[in-house]
């Protein structure tokens, strides 16, 4: 019994190839004829650089309602909001890591092999975008906002301290209060959300 997926495709005969070459030749002739042009024009269509004998093809105008392609590499990626819950945030990161595992992308650090680079590229649309407010390079008030967050955490029973001007840490000797994740999210929104 033969496997249907291995059926051979018919090879075009001599007449089919001749018709194909005739069609290609006719198309080329039409293009060359359209690009040629008489010389009785006023010269307004000619370039000022003196290329008067060079024909040009005008770019087609964009049709109304045609969607434009975006070159934004972040388009379509999941966005973590300031008020995203820990569960929502974890789901986004877990989805990206699952893709990296499935496609062979790097789970830590930058891709180093061609396979890891291909995996990273295949999963780029799943990598979550962190809020720009939480990026010190994008938020000039980051250190001040972080201080407000640490004060808020302390006010709600979470022992936190500033580390340098761009990070904070928790007192590991004390257990986190109940509903810690909700407290942290609420303090983050209070401190970083711009009004």
Helix and strand arrangement:
Blueprint: H1 14-35, H2 86-103, H3 114-123, H4 142-155, E1 160-163, E2 167-170, H5 180-192
Antiparallel strand pairs: 1-2
Helix pairs in contact: 2-3, 4-5
Describe the structure.
The protein has 195 residues and is mainly α. Helix content is 39%, strand content 4%. It is built from 5 helices and 2 strands. It has helices at 14-35, 86-103, 114-123, 142-155, 180-192, and strands at residues 160-163, 167-170. It has a two-stranded antiparallel sheet with strand order 1-2. β1 (160-163) and β2 (167-170) form a beta hairpin. α2 (86-103) crosses α3 and α4 (142-155) packs antiparallel against α5. The protein is elongated. Residues 1-51 have low confidence and may be disordered.
Form type: elongated
Low-confidence stretches: 1-51
- Structural class by sheet pairing and helices: mainly alpha
- Estimated radius of gyration: 31 Å
Strand content: under 5%
The spatial strand order of the largest sheet comes to 1-2
